[in-house]
Amino acid sequence: MGDPPIEMPVEWDKYVDEPLTEKELERLWQSVNRQSPFGDIIWQQKVCKALWIRIDHKTCGKAKEK
């Protein structure tokens, strides 16, 4: 594996090996189900703008039948 494109924090491997909290895991599954970027709202907005992705946090999943 090559060098990462950014300088990695000290002991980054210990950080990534830590299990997610229940809240983080719930947010991860929301992102997966909504097919949206995972991270804080500022980061999500930057990614969506860069990739021309529209995220509507009010609705997700299949439209309800009338």
Helicity, in percent?
A: 40-55%
What spatial form do the alpha-carbon principal axes imply? flat
Poorly predicted runs are 58-62
H and E string = HHH
Number of strands: 0
Quote the distance from N terminus to C terminus.
Answer: 52 Å
Largest sheet: none
Sheet/helix structural class: mainly alpha
Number of helices: 3
Query: Mean of the pLDDT scores?
Result: 82
Give the C-alpha Rg.
Answer: 16 Å
Instruction: Please state roughly what percent of the residues sit in beta strands, choosing from under 5%, 5-15%, 15-25%, 25-35%, 35-45% or over 45%.
Output: under 5%
Verbal overview:
The protein is an all-alpha fold. The chain has a domain at 12-51. Helices cover 45% and strands 0% of the residues. The radius of gyration is 16 Å and the shape is flat.
Q: How would the blueprint of this fold be written?
A:
Layout: H1 12-17, H2 22-34, H3 41-51
Features:
66 residues; mainly alpha; 45% helix
Short description:
The protein has helices spanning 12-17, 22-34, 41-51. It has 66 residues and is an all-alpha fold.
